[in-house]
Structure formats: structure tokens, C-alpha cells
Amino acid sequence: MNDIAVFGSSSSAGKSTITMLLLNILKQHNINALPFKAQNFSNNSTVADDNTEIAFAQYFQAKSVNLKTSRYLNPLLIKSGKNSHLHIIENGNFFGELSPIEYYNTIDTFKKTVENSYIRLKQEGIVVSEGAGSPTELNFLDRDLANTFIALNFKPKIVFVADIERGGVFASIFGTKELLKKIGLEISGVIINKFRGDIKLFNDGIKIIEKEFNIPIFGVLPYLELNVGFEDNLNTNNYIQHKKPIIKAGVYNFRYMSNYYDIEPLILDRNVEVSFFNNLNQADLFDVVVLPGSRQTVLDLLLIKKQDYKILKKTKIIALCGGYQMLFENIYDSIESDIKHTKGLGLIKGNVRFEPNKILKRSKYKIGSFEVNGFEMHYGKTDKLYFEDENIFGTFVHEALYNDDLRTCLLKKINPQYSPYNYKKAYKKHLAQFVENAKMNFYVDKLFKLL
């Protein structure tokens, strides 16, 4: 059977979500398929089941179809490094930091890593490979690992995702088709994504694309609510809440915010309204302030200290990983930044020291009286896995809020009227509803002709 490559008209066109959708459709028809992204630029990462670090998008895609995760799903992960360098994760572990020029000048050295991962996954089933940005950046074609390198070397069928919300959908489809043709590639099908309004209004558009462009349409997908699986901070603006909240949670929007999947249990919770903010003067508008992860803990700490951060002393706080580390008295860091020492927010006694060996571990943790499944992914070290007092709960453990009992305990301290819910059950229902709603406007028979 043919593999599939999911390319898009631009970043945030919906490639990650469409990849997840295709995996679910294939699974429903008893076809083994695995997600893959050769190179992902994202600060939103996680620990795979083999205790390596990969992009969250590929982890999310795999878990949506109950697959084990590993470094092979995302062999190259590029995060923001210090001094405008790229922090490179190869095969799930830290490779080094390079300037963008150095990285692209040596990119051929990473091609074997990508090839080996793809071949390894191919042994298990169909590979559904997610591209990056646009596949026709002409000045980067020879260095485009996620798009043209995969397409030319492994010959998958290309499904093109066109974001109609941004406009210019016909130009993006036709232009991409013609530019790909020049390098020996062709689009096998198009998915129109994020359509708002009556889809019947696009009937003539379907005819134009299929008859004049000679490309089949696989679906015209409406703009659908999906409050899980955020790939990057652009997507954090896309969630939808239908709530009568009794708790208002404000998530501080760090410049280098990362790993915001930790707050998905709050976004899905009908009793909690989630808002992002970056002005500490607004902190008293919320019942609880969430300090999420940060890819550049010290730099984000320095930015927050330019404001009147003492307001946090009077605020209920949930702090996770990077946000948790900021609460200590001192941070000593020669790993993520060149600022070897800075004063923390001073809300927790003790120091944080960054050490070269990054902790990457999935495990079961004891947090208070609760057994919590989660993972650690950090350079900073203290003697406190978690901290809790009357106003603060902080921990290194990602996915801690996925635990219903722990989360309920924390939210009841904020408002005793809070009513708990089952996060895993709500998550599965929400994801299943999205898949089924999307399938209503997806031509599954055309997809299977592609295979």
C-alpha cells in the first residue's frame, strides 16, 4: 500500500490535525498506519514511551490511535536555543546547538537519521508523514527534510491541505501543483480545511479544482472545535469554550511558553474558564494563575520580573515545570541561557540548578497522597519534586493535572463548589466527536483509491 504525505498551504493550515484524522480513518478500516514528521520546529515536546524526547504533535497523533510512541516518529526536533541558536534533538536526545546557518549548511548529515526512522516505521504499516510549512519554498527545496526530501525519496501520495480561512485557496492549490510538478512531484488529492459557513457555497469551487486543476477533492472540512492536541502557541488561540464557569484560570503567556498540553484538562473542564494573559496587573481577575512550561526559563523569568510580580504573592498559583522553577529563590543556569545566576520570584525556599544531563522519564509519581502518571523533562534540579502550600501548587511532573483526584483536590481548594469530571473519558469523547464530524465532509472512498 502507498504511504501518505500531508502537505499544506502554510504553517497552521491544519496538517497536524489532518494527519491525526487520516490515522483514525485508517484505523477504523483495520489498516495499520503510523504518524511521522522528519523535522519539527516546536517548543512543545514530550517524552515518548521509550523515554526519548519528541514533538508533542506526533505523540498526540500516535496516542489518538493507541500506538506506542518512540523517537522514530520524529527523528529531528528543533527548539529555540540560547543566543538565537537552534536546540537540536536527534533521535530523541540532545545533539547540540547550532546557528540557523550552521544547521542548514550541515543538514545533509541529518538525512540518514530521517531515512532510518522512516524505514523503521515502514516495517510496521503505512507511514502518514506530516510536512512542514509550505512544500514549495524554492530557496529551501534542497534542505527541506519534512516535505520534498520525504516525497522524492519515499514516493508517498501527497495530500494537500488548503486553509480556506486565510484566503487565496485556489492560488495556493494551483501554484503548489505547478511548482511541485517542476521537481517531479504531484498532488494526489486536496482537503479544503477550516471552511466557515454553508459548504454548499463551495460546490463550484470543487468543480474548478477537480476539472480545471485535475486534482480530486478529498473533503471540504468545516471549522471544527478541537480543544486538545495544540501543536504550537498559534493554536492556543483556537480553542472554544461553552461554559458557565465557577473558576476563572489565567494562563500566563510566556514568550517562550512550551508544553501547554498540561492545561488541556482545564480547557475541557466546563467548570473552568481558561484565558491567556501577559500583563500581571490582570492577575487579580482570575481565581488561579497558571504558570506553564517555558523553553527559556531564565529569560521568561527576567521578562516577568519587569512587571509588578509581587502581585503573585496574593494569588493562587498552579506552576508546572519551568513555571515551577521560577518560584524558587535562585536559579543557576549555564545550560539554557548565559545568565549564570538570577533571583527567582522567591515564593518557594531553595535553589534551582541547571545541569547538563536532562531528565527524560515517564513514570508513576507520588504527589501528596496521589499516585500520578506523568513524566519529567527538565535540566533544572531541586530537592522538591513538587511543592504545595495554601496558595501554591507546583511540580516538575508534566501531565499531573491529567489525574482527576489531584486536579479535583486543587480546584476544590480554589472553589469548594467545584464539581469534578473524568478527564480521560471527556478527552476520548471530544476527540471521537471531532473525527466523526470531520468524516461527514470527507470522501473516504477517494482516500482508499489513493492507497
From TrEMBL:
- The residue ranges of the CobQ/CobB/MinD/ParA nucleotide binding domain are 4-225
The segment(s) forming the CobB/CobQ-like glutamine amidotransferase domain are 251-384
Signal sequence segment: none
Q: Name one Pfam family in it.
A: CbiA
Q: Which example biological process does GO assign this protein? A: cobalamin biosynthetic process
Q: Which NCBIfam families match?
A: PRK00784.1 (NF001989)
Q: Which family does it belong to?
A: Belongs to the CobB/CobQ family. CobQ subfamily.
Kindly give the HAMAP family that the UniProt entry links to this protein. CobQ
Name the UniProt record assigns to this protein: Cobyric acid synthase
Q: Which species is this UniProt entry from? A: Desulfurella amilsii
